């Protein structure tokens, strides 16, 4: 399997190199040169497989030529054996044909564990084989940070620096990052918003001179391995609901477009998906594009669903690449326009093509709380605010009541007590046993100014287990 850049000017790489590369050298994102496609008979034969075995069948083509089957199987079995539910990603029925796919049974109670528990093991495997050491610099709007640290904390050849916007993530989210200690773990609270953090990460990838020769690796969803791992649970959900012999629709809470892009890929790989709904909060750049062909920066607002408090959706470039016939020059031109003006539109036929599959909705905080209360009254289920946005979007945008609708349950509600309290359901949530003492644990993090040079100087000084790079 070879991977190419969405901007067309970077060399094609194999899986191992893409895993370590993050951004392409031309500033683009890597995607498979040719997407594997499965027959309906092949997909049907996977019904009833344990999650790790299904993951092997879905992801095997993406690592072909880089990881032997036996090694990859072992990595996957270890990854998903760490989840607390035997089904790994169980489906919970809300009503007759509406389901929540619970993606929060991993160590940090968020969907990002599916990819980042795997990513840590893949990095360990590849770096040990190559005798290399790397530095991870990642930005988080809440959940990526703790999942990345949890996934990579035991990696012998990795130093990890996670940037989060100071005072803009929930207390549970922050503590899940800042109470994990290790010589290779560094939490940085940036005096800015998530987009500031993300821009620093992108700038650091573009010019890695401050590392003095050490390679920088991405854990954000720009890393192809993140997307690859998320494809699996679309197949998993569909197979539980009669797929591939019937179509399934999905509503996906998303800010950075990575999770829903995985669903788009699952469809292109042969899974019958009727509809993908982009469910977002007040920070609605994706909704404005899907509903009106306007991709434009706007003011970033703090909301009750902070993991989606994102102004610019990095992974959207991967969809643009396909919408433009995989023309890297066209995508590079669009991204240049966006950099200069803060907005762009695409030709009507390309936008119409996107609308054949995608619908969207932006949901504000008041509507989020209303939905949490409504679902609790209907079923006794407590939703986190991101999942509630997914439910609201599913109910308002659904094209067919005959087709099962799956809402991605992206996080455990205990991570967002403010939203649950504001919903007024009168339910007190308790942390799972492995996190029961979270609020008593010591925290360790460093507050830094919203300044790229200050961040890079910190990374340079504290990398390589405390030895200056």
Automatic annotation (TrEMBL):
Q: Which cofactor does it need?
A: pyridoxal 5'-phosphate
Which keywords describe this protein according to UniProt? Amino-acid biosynthesis, Lyase, Pyridoxal phosphate, Threonine biosynthesis
Q: Where is the Tryptophan synthase beta chain-like PALP domain?
A: 92-331
Q: Which GO terms describe its molecular function?
A: threonine synthase activity
Q: Return the Pfam families for the record.
A: PALP, THR4_C, Thr_synth_N
InterPro entries from the entry? Answer: Ser/Thr_deHydtase_PyrdxlP-BS, Thr_synth_N, Thr_synth_N_sf, Thr_synthase-like, Threonine_Synthase, TrpB-like_PALP, TrpB-like_PALP_sf
Coiled-coil ranges per UniProt: none
Query: SUPFAM superfamilies from the entry?
Result: Tryptophan synthase beta subunit-like PLP-dependent enzymes (SSF53686)
Task: Report which reactions are catalysed by this protein.
Answer: O-phospho-L-homoserine + H2O = L-threonine + phosphate
The source's domain of life comes to Bacteria
Q: Ranges for the Threonine synthase N-terminal domain?
A: 2-80
Enzyme Commission number: 4.2.3.1
Family annotation (PROSITE patterns): DEHYDRATASE_SER_THR (PS00165)
Q: In which pathway does it act?
A: Amino-acid biosynthesis; L-threonine biosynthesis; L-threonine from L-aspartate: step 5/5
Q: Which family does it belong to?
A: Belongs to the threonine synthase family.
What is the name of this protein?
Threonine synthase
Q: Say which species the protein is native to.
A: Pseudomonas kulmbachensis
**Upper lineage ranks?**
Bacteria, Pseudomonadati, Pseudomonadota, Gammaproteobacteria, Pseudomonadales
Gene from which this protein is expressed: thrC
């Amino acid at each position: 399997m070879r991977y190419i850049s969405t901007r067309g000017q970077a060399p094609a790489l194999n899986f191992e190199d893409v895993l370590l590369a993050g951004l392409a050298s031309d500033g683009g994102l890597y995607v498979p040169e040719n997407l594997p496609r499965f027959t309906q008979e092949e997909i049907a034969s996977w019904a009833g497989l344990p999650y790790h075995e299904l993951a092997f069948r879905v992801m095997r083509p993406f690592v072909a030529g880089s990881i032997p089957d036996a090694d990859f199987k072992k990595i996957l079995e270890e990854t998903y054996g760490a989840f607390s539910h035997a089904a790994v990603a169980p489906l919970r029925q809300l009503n007759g044909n509406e389901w929540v796919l619970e993606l929060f049974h991993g160590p940090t109670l968020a969907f990002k564990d599916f990819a980042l528990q795997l990513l840590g093991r893949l990095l360990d495997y590849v770096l040990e084989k190559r005798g290399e050491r790397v530095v991870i610099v990642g930005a988080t709007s809440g959940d990526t940070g703790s999942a990345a640290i949890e996934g990579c904390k035991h990696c012998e050849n990795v130093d990890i620096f996670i940037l989060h916007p100071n005072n803009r993530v929930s207390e549970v989210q922050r503590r899940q990052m800042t109470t994990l200690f290790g010589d290779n773990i560094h939490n940085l609270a940036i005096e800015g918003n998530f987009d500031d953090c993300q821009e620093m990460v992108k700038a650091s990838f573009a010019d890695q001179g401050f590392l003095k020769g050490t390679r920088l690796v991405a854990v954000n969803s720009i890393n192809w391995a993140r997307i690859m791992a998320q494809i699996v649970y679309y197949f998993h959900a569909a197979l539980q609901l009669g797929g591939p012999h019937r179509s399934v629709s999905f509503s996906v809470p998303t800010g950075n477009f990575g999770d829903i892009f995985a669903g788009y890929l699952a469809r292109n790989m042969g899974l019958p998906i009727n509809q993908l709904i982009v469910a977002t909060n007040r920070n609605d750049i994706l909704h404005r594009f899907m509903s009106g062909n306007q991709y434009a920066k706007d003011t970033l607002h703090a909301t009750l669903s902070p993991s989606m408090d994102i102004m610019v959706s990095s992974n959207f470039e991967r969809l643009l690449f396909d919408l433009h016939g995989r023309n890297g020059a066209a995508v590079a031109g669009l991204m240049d326009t966006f950099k200069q003006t803060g907005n762009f539109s695409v030709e009507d036929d390309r936008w119409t093509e996107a609308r054949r599959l995608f619908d969207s909705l932006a949901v504000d905080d008041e509507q989020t709380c209303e939905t949490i209360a409504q679902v609790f009254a209907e079923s006794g289920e407590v939703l986190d605010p991101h999942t509630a946005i997914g439910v609201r979007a599913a109910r308002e945008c659904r094209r067919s009541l005959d087709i099962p609708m799956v809402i991605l349950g992206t996080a455990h509600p205990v991570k967002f007590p403010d939203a649950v309290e504001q919903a007024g359901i009168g339910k007190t949530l308790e942390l799972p046993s492995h996190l029961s003492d979270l609020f008593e644990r010591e925290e360790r993090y460093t507050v830094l100014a919203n300044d790229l040079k200050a961040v890079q100087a910190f990374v340079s000084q504290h990398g390589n287990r405390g030895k200056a790079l």
